[in-house]
Amino acid sequence: MATTTTVKDIPVAKKRAQGLSVTTRAITNSSTPLSVACFYGLLILLILAPIYPVMAQANFQALMNSSVMSAVLGGHLTNLFNFSALLAVEVFSSIYGLLFGGFVAWIGGAALPITIEDGTLDLALSRPISRTRYYLESWLAVLIGAVIISLVLALGVWIDTFIVNNSGVDWPWMWITLLVQWTFLFFAAGLGMLCGSFINASRAAGGTALGIVVLGYLINTFGGLSNQFQWVLKISPFYYAPAIDPLINHHLTWWYPWVLVVAGLVCGIVGLVVFNRRDLPTV
Amino acid sequence: MTTNEPVIIIDNLHKTYGKIQAVKGISINVERGEIFGFLGPNGAGKTTTIRCMLDVIRPTAGTIRVLGLDAQRDTMALHQHIGYLPGDVRLPGRMTGKQIINYFVNLQGREPVLLNDLVERFDVEIKRPLKGYSKGMRQKIGIVLAFMCDPDVLILDEPTSGLDPLLQKVFNEFLLEEQARGKTIFMSSHIMSDVEKVCQRVAVIRSGELVTLEEVGALREKAGQHIIVEFGDAVSEQELERISGVSLLTKTNGTYHFNISGSMDTLIKALSQHEVIRLTSQEAPLEEVFLKFYEEPEKTTPLA
């Protein structure tokens, strides 16, 4: 220790607001899958408008009446003679949950493990930020992502109404449909956070959450194929997010979305408990 | 905490992963303003101990107190005063150095009063995306992140890993400056020369157990002198090994090399029985003492 040292005059580090740094960071981390989801949503919706006149003239009655189609869509459509019905078939059916719910589940699953992989979790938790706050801010980021997807889809429908003459879209019921579908995204976000709370690899966690969503879709589809399997429908989250009913029939069983909200909350809170209790790994 | 209380108190720390005992009852106190070296071979339990101090992993048994605060219960309050440098600095490739610094400044909730000084001193590149950064460049960013908000306690896991010799020297000087400002530094390292230069005390951990905790000066005394002797007549290795305090005896091209601790009197008397052509004595490097703790589990008894 032969080195001579000098003591510098350094000002005391003043406090500053932490803000929602983790949320902002998590949204940035998920920007790629989020952009892809928004792109697909807009693409599908913007293609629907130009093809609607042709689709409206075709006779899909037999197809619409088939139980297979009802099972695939997660609801029964009687005709394709208005634009809302086409929207219901192509976007606002079980496909919505499968596609966009899948994206949100993936984003939620990857939200925490991706910070293990990029080395920022250890560094972040060595700062004055609790695991609970870190988790909740990450969850918030996923939910904001879900809101962005919903709003982009609403934008797509809105643009469609300028392209399609007399589109007949009932906006109050369109917003209700979007809200109901958002509860599915809420569930998917909670499910993803749960998977990410105990799986260390982002792809594995996102893939597991996505796999559960796909499994739910398959249960919903096969349950709808036969009356004997109707009971199976009730264990699928898709059963509680009917899109065709509110959009086309202007009818909604009010407590169905709450099942998804509660399920999403339970998943998210269990994930929070797991994340708080576990040893966090390094890569 | 009272001013006399050690800044870091690790008391009977145990950490078990399933059937594997990573840390077995370590107890260490680190005083205010001390630079404490934490040494041990790979897999000895150094990083596990450090991660327990940060509450990233939870001890199976035992307690850790830093600045009078419990490392598990008072995490938020404690982490306002801690700077941490991980062993392997990994950073998100899409961000620039500036962005990652801003992110952690926000999380710290304090102004980065040392930022400009650190960036200048370590010549840190902060404008490029981190993706192209070498190990050394990432390490420099890690050093900036650990020190920039001027924390009271620094927990550094192999801080000079990846730095070139010039920057290692700059870093060691910086550590001594920080110590002079009253900062307490707990660092693990594999670079014995660094430890020798900056640390006042060192603990050596092996297989999760503490094998020694001593002042660097005492270890230097233990290391003793390194002797090189060339004889004009035949001398057996056994004869030299019998001399009190002789260790690490080797023979190269007819010349004996060994360390001797304690009094030289016995050695000189033994050598005088023979024809000595050349005799060199120099301070033995501490590295050999550390390596002895690393490599000879059967000859060193872990501390209780």
Structure description:
- The complex is a heterodimer of chains A (283) and B (304).
- By secondary structure, chain A is mainly α.
- Chain A has one domain (21-277).
- Chain A contains 14 helices and no strands.
- Chain A has helices at residues 21-29, 31-57, 61-65, 67-73, 83-90, 94-111, 113-117, 120-125, 131-163, 171-198, 202-225, 230-233, 244-249, 256-277.
- In chain A, α6 (94-111) runs parallel beside α10 (171-198), α9 (131-163) packs antiparallel against α14 (256-277) and α10 (171-198) packs parallel to α14 (256-277).
- Chain B has 304 residues and is of the alpha/beta class.
- Chain B has two domains: 8-219, Rossmann fold (3-Layer(aba) Sandwich); 225-283, Alpha-Beta Plaits (2-Layer Sandwich).
- Helix content of chain B is 32%, strand content 29%.
- Chain B has helices spanning 46-53, 75-79, 97-108, 115-121, 135-147, 165-180, 192-198, 216-223, 237-241, 265-271, 286-295; strands at residues 8-17, 20-30, 35-39, 61-66, 69-70, 82-85, 153-157, 184-188, 201-206, 209-215, 225-231, 246-252, 255-260, 276-283.
- Chain B has a six-stranded mixed β-sheet, sandwiched between helices. Chain B has a four-stranded antiparallel β-sheet with strand order 2-1-4-5.
- Chains A and B meet through α1 and α8 of A and α2, α3 and α6 of B.
Which tags fit this structure?
heterodimer, A: 283 residues, 71% helix, B: alpha/beta, Rossmann fold, Alpha-Beta Plaits, 4-stranded antiparallel β-sheet, 14 strands
**Would you tell me the overall average pLDDT of chain B?**
89
**How many domains comprise the coordinates of chain B?**
2
Biggest interface pair, counts: A-B, 39 and 51 residues
Structurally, how many domains make up the residues of chain A?
1
